[in-house]
Design goal:
Number of strands: 26
Shape: globular
Number of domains: 3
Distance between the termini: 35 Å
CATH class of the largest domain: Mainly Beta
Helix content: 25-40%
Number of helices: 8
């Protein structure tokens, strides 16, 4: 890898899914060098030489200690963390300064930890501005803000039991936000932008039921005697203990459930029998169909957002723009015909919006940023 063109070919192999583990290591080291040392693009030859030597050492030292699954997760997360920066280098080399001028006056920061908690009695708590510590007591369980981005439900003491009727709380995340939640049974929940979950402060009875809208990732605490049921606008999901992602936005044509670990049952209201999906599969129902479609997918892509990335895998232009609209809290306007394209790859969610738009321009999505509005053009 002695020339800049080789780096671009490496990036292409990663983007189309043909990269080897050596490719991921190489790209990881290449990006890390730019991030840590802020070295100019003219140093690419020297960086490549240094990188190859490090790759050889990395392969030799780590071959016996990394499982394939773990390595892929670590390599992808690390190596594509600077995808936006990489795209910006391409932009600076291959385009005029017009784009930079259009987007540098008023930039838009990425989303952050923000949410509103509504208790069963109607009380609302703005979590991003509230102090850490105890927020409320419900059914013998205390609601605690652990840090800026996480609340938990825990029994006041080991003898505490849910008392009285089931009290449902609602956690709502606005556009430009994200938040985490640990339910009273230990289930971990991540909420993406423009999403919400309605859940009991403490579970009672034979089942654990929650209601979700938007995009939610769950790591369900195992409990064979109390199935965990997730209600979406199109179907219900039943699990005992597993990791999965649910995307059920009102403005998206499909409700999708992607399973990363374990197995779940997906059932349409009124259907004769539920469908069981396994790890690496995705169940979806669109607004025009009454049947659940199941397909094999790269399940890790569905959960990249909880690690700070925007996955564009097999996304249309409108789907890409919907993701940006939710995360950056901006409106989208289309000027002319919407380009009919499918995209792949992952973008850093911590990047400024102008950097993301710069990367998208290199793959044919042309935009203008006006205040908090992205105008997508066909040219």
């Amino acid at each position: 890898m002695k020339k800049e063109e080789d780096i671009l070919k490496l990036f292409e192999r990663i983007s189309i899914g043909e990269a080897t583990e050596e490719d991921f290591r190489a790209y990881n080291l290449w990006c890390h060098s730019f991030q840590e040392n802020q070295r100019p693009i003219s140093d690419i030859g020297r960086i490549s030489a240094e990188m190859l030597e490090q790759v050889k050492n990395e392969i030799h030292n780590s071959a016996k200690i990394h499982s394939s699954r773990l390595w892929i997760k670590v390599a992808v997360a690390a190596s594509i963390a600077l995808l936006v920066t990489f795209g910006s280098y391409v932009l600076m080399r291959n385009s005029t300064t017009k784009y930079t001028a259009e987007h540098s006056v008023k930039d838009v920061a990425p989303g952050s930890n923000k949410a509103v908690l509504t208790l069963a009695n109607g009380q609302t708590i703005i979590l991003d501005s509230s102090h850490n510590g105890k927020l409320a007591n419900q059914n013998g369980h205390k609601v605690t803000k652990v840090n800026n981005g996480l609340i938990t439900y825990q029994a006041e003491n080991k003898w505490s039991k849910a008392r009285g009727p089931v009290e449902y709380n609602t956690l709502k995340v606005p556009r430009g936000g994200q938040f985490q939640l640990i339910l009273s049974d230990g289930t971990k929940v991540w909420l993406n932008a423009a999403s919400s979950i309605r859940y009991p402060a403490a579970f009672k009875g034979k089942e654990r039921r929650v209601f979700v809208n938007g995009e939610v990732y769950l790591e369900v605490a195992n409990d064979d005697k109390h199935p965990f049921i997730v209600h979406t606008r199109r179907y219900d999901i039943t699990v005992l203990g597993t990791h999965f992602n649910v995307m059920a936005y009102d403005n998206e044509p499909e409700v999708c459930t992607t399973l990363l670990e374990g197995s779940i049952m997906v059932a349409l209201p009124g259907a004769e029998a539920p469908i069981i999906i396994k790890s690496g599969q995705q169940a979806s129902v669109n607004d025009l169909s009454q049947a659940i479609q199941v397909k094999k997918v790269n399940a890790e892509n569905a959960a990249t957002w909880i690690h700070g990335f925007l996955s564009l895998n097999d996304c249309s232009v409108q789907e890409v723009m919907n993701k940006l609209s939710r995360w950056y809290n901006v409106d989208i306007e289309y000027a002319g015909t919407v380009p009919e394209k499918k995209f792949g790859g992952i973008l850093n969610r911590n990047a400024e919006l102008s950097d993301v738009l710069a990367v998208l321009s290199t793959v044919g999505i042309h935009t203008q940023l006006e205040d908090r509005k992205i105008i997508v053009s066909s040219n």
